Known about the structure:
By secondary structure, this protein is of the alpha/beta class. The protein folds into two domains: about 5-280, Spore Coat Polysaccharide Biosynthesis Protein SpsA, Chain A, CATH 3.90.550; about 290-480, Rossmann fold, CATH 3.40.50.150. The chain has helices spanning about 25-35, 40-45, 60-70, 90-100, 120-130, 190-195, 210-220, 250-260, 270-280, 300-315, 330-340, 350-365, 400-410, 425-430, 440-450, and strands spanning about 5-10, 45-55, 80-85, 105-110, 115, 135-140, 150, 155, 160-165, 175-180, 185-190, 220-235, 325, 345-350, 370, 385-390, 410-425, 455, 470-480. A hairpin with a 5-residue loop joins strand 6 and strand 7. Helix 1 runs parallel beside helix 3 and helix 10 packs across helix 11 (about 330-340). It is elongated. Mean pLDDT is about 90; it is low at about 485 and about 490-500.
Amino acid sequence: xxxxxxxxxxxxxxxxxxxxxxxxxxxxxxxxxxxxxxxxxxxxxxxxxxxxxxxxxxxxxxxxxxxxxxxxxxxxxxxxxxxxxxxxxxxxxxxxxxxxxxxxxxxxxxxxxxxxxxxxxxxxxxxxxxxxxxxxxxxxxxxxxxxxxxxxxxxxxxxxxxxxxxxxxxxxxxxxxxxxxxxxxxxxxxxxxxxxxxxxxxxxxxxxxxxxxxxxxxxxxxxxxxxxxxxxxxxxxxxxxxxxxxxxxxxxxxxxxxxxxxxxxxxxxxxxxxxxxxxxxxxxxxxxxxxxxxxxxxxxxxxxxxxxxxxxxxxxxxxxxxxxxxxxxxxxxxxxxxxxxxxxxxxxxxxxxxxxxxxxxxxxxxxxxxxxxxxxxxxxxxxxxxxxxxxxxxxxxxxxxxxxxxxxxxxxxxxxxxxxxxxxxxxxxxxxxxxxxxxxxxxxxxxxxxxxxxxxxxxxxxxxxxxxxxxxxxxxxxxxxxxxxxxxxxxxxxxxxxxx
Length: 500
């Protein structure tokens, strides 16, 4: 009888000599944890363990050989070792392991994880039996210090690739749920799903599991995570390794290769390109009721004062500044700035905001009405025309945030500034509603902006808001092509999670 499950472990230098402290046996600890957490499963269920070493020069190869020489109580070898040619990408080792594995469920573990939950395999088998469309299952990933790194990943979310719950309490409540992707370090997969969409792409030094994840989604397979299956990813305990998958340029090379293959960036995909590849069923043309959002409409006085102070503080003394505001709302900020002889061109895509501004004009006889456009990602503005662009609580509700960032970069002058204001959610809130898009996590926003490759963050020289507004993140950004600006807008205090 073939085994029900195959545990596959690609190994490249996960030994003591490759650990930061020179004493942590990463691979050995993983193998010990398998047998500590699965004694009943190993006794009652046919499970095979396969290790593929592709060129290790440290003691991890000796560890793998020692385990392959051991036998269990039933006389079976505890694991089987494949020593394959060094120099290939991780996908080469994974494809070799998949050729050798016989189980209907494939449990892929990186050599630097450690299992913490007893009976995890039995739980996984129950999920695969219960959900025939389940292609891949993940667990609760902690780092080596017990902090939560991820409870599943998002690939199709408007805000880009994200680790759900990153930074939340390690024991944050969560239930089994469906999402987009499972990281490769702990990746439980139905063999039939892999056979339908595989193999791993051997041209990619990094991100081969993301590539596979998109193919699984295309093929109609589901990804889920059981937060009660817990493991520790000990990446920070391992030294950097020479090789095609860990070189300094491997991440950027992989991103370029992935983009050439799929037509979008795997970390910050343009929604239009994503939809053209995966179709409208997976990537709908619009999301939610974003045009009914009330941000900037009938705002309380303290919010208006904050934006007036923010814009006045960013204007360069005795220098003409062309200012544009996207998502400003009912025109209250722009009207207040007129009292200081500061003219702002306001642009809105929401009928409700334009109607509110018109009502104010009709009632008072004064005021500006925002210019109405259908899509803020396509502005009727010349390249490089704007010196100061304010995007206020808009990015998080935009159907295509990456396209909005690209449009912002297009209209900015070479030394212009983007003031980006977004509403944010805690990692614990993200766990409760992973697919929500009305707010961003601080980590998600930083990754989105950095991943776009368009902007660099610049510091403030004073607090950006005179009044507390803790639900809004504030960033000042300059075009990345101008790294030597030497400009400041406020005093940097590290993570701008709280803006006041």
